[in-house]
Amino acid sequence: MLGNKTIVVTGASSGAGKAIALEFALQKPTLILAARNPDALREVAEECSELGAQVKYVITDVTDASAMIELAAEAKAFGGKIDIWVNNAGLLAVGSFDEVPLAVHQQVINTNLMGYINGAHAVLPYFKLQKHGVLINNISIGGFLPVPFGVGYSASKFGLRGFSAALKAELADWPNIHICDAFPAFLDTPGIQHAANYTGKYLKPAPPVYDPRRVAISIVKLAEKPRAEVMIGSVSTLLRLSYGLFPALTRGITGAVIRTYLKNADPIAKSDGNVFGPVDYGNAVYGGWGIPGKPKAHRKYLVAGLLLATAAGLLSLRRK
Hints:
9 strands
């Protein structure tokens, strides 16, 4: 269904972005791939080309509004139109809020929030001119569940959800322009390896970790049949429900789990990660954190924890 479409994917050099690019490439569309890392992006472009897609890659920093305007112009020139735009580029910084440099918080928010806004602002004029288009925002469960020790990340993800909701309302008179949000749970990508780390402790994602190809498949489906939002993975739905019902309790449990992990984790040097520029490691789809697509080994513990939290929350309500 997408073979005659022109598709833009930001943050395409690794992780979920690379998985998304490769999944789209299977349908042999026209692909424009964007990221900051030229070598990794070139490699992804070659892989997509081998799968039959017509590919152009553009070295782009999503925090630069003028660069995003240029990206949209190059996509239009290359494909003759822009049918689908996937906002995906993102950063993570981990550490106590006051110990993470303010410039790092700002860069995380500039990338995760303003980068998506820059993308939407660049592509919407093309969508309106042609009277159709699909904008997909890969947001993550972080749009619903606050992440202690990742305050800038949480601010950006909660902001993205508000931005998208407002944009959907504004575009109500454009029935063929669709704004779609994806909320995946924790993924087996190199993202945590790329993160700025001010904890002084070795980081790894909380189990279960999902195969990033699940995200890619869901986003391709959104491109084919747009929906306002999709939760990717049952854990994502459970965490959203838990925080929606018992926000204080869920925050408390989340904070306690992370503090306990950091207390016992192995020491590691502090690092800015890829916040201020690309890094030359971890440019694959997978991060090696688990068996892709096999989160069931850990899910029972998470589900049990959520059920206990729900029971505790109901008990506290009865006591009140």
